Amino acid sequence: MNELVFEVTQEADGGFVAECLGESIVTQADSWEELRQNVKEAVQAFYFDRTPPPAIRLHLVRDEVVAVA
Q: Which one, of 30, 29, 54, 53, lies nearest residue 39 by Cα?
């Protein structure tokens, strides 16, 4: 595995939640910069006894409803 992919959603309060696709890793933060750090720390904790993949991809998923009329 070359990278871990996290699906990131923004909460109504402005914070972010990141959930890893393929591993049981989930974290959250109030800002994007804080989320980056929290994801790194969560990955390091998850892989405490083995080598983690060399890259992490944060994929921001945006859900927007647009009125037709």
A: 29
